[in-house]
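Entry 14. Structure prediction run on the chain below.
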Amino acid sequence: MTRGTELFTGGRKLFGARQASADLETARAGELAQRYETALNVERDYYDVLGARELLDVARDRATRAAEQFGTARARVTSGATVPSDSLQVLLEQQRAEAEVLRREAALTVARLQLGRRIGRAVPVDAAPIDSTTPAALSITLDEAVTRAVEQGPAWREARSAEKSSEAQIRVRQASYLPSVTLTASLGKFDDKFFPTLTNRRSIGFSIALPIWDGGQRELAIQRLKTNRTVARAIREDLERSARRDVTEAYTGYDVSRRALDLAHAGVGVAAEILRVQNARYRAGAATVLELLDAQAQLVQAQADLVQARYAVRLARASLEVILGQRLTPDSERSTP
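Output returned:
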């Protein structure tokens, strides 16, 4: 019976353990990044359903107003208060509004199917409504966000771990230049019985191995690993340099989106008032049908802008969460499809 153990390996096991630890950290950072990317994609599809449903409501309101305006225009033409072309122009608007309703219904169906696909279902999935108020300001400052991104952001963690892993790989390869020491022990028993007891022989020995030349394979491998380390270091340094720029873009994008949402709310109110005034003026014969249709188009556009702004602000926050690797959404605002 012979047993052996390595007493000294030139640090190969130590650096191998460090490489394994760095690889594990890289995998964990990659998993975290994928989790937030997946969450962002789910939120995007979720908001697409909500947005498509609201845009369908906008299109239906447009069609209803167009039908009412067509009735008013026909009455004015019949009474001789305006020319027949007015009713034709409103009829054209009504037909366009009805066609828009059909397009929005199709878009909503596709959005629901996409949401179902995203969450692993082969049927259309609807999205529960969310709070329509403007989301609150971020609870952290821009400088804090930059610091957190560098310290715990998945991309930065992954880059640092990749650099550590490449450094450990070099150390593992360089350890082959050092000798390895192995302790061996053997025990032998000899006899003509099943359990021998006549002769016992024991031995303990040390062996030292020192690779001298392997055709330059070690040098070539080390050079390749050093190149990989240089690339990993360059990636890590570039990410650290771009941290403030990337975080600032996402952080200010959220603030701008919040402000744009407030302006969109105000814009809908202004457009609705303009349409009310123009509708009254048209009934009184003080405005043309073109002015009425223009006011109608402004309201439709303002309502569509509001829908887009409402979900753009939430997607902007989700994009910042991907960078930081941290949830910033209050529990009261979270909805699960």
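The chain has one domain: 2-333.
Filed with the rest of this week's runs.
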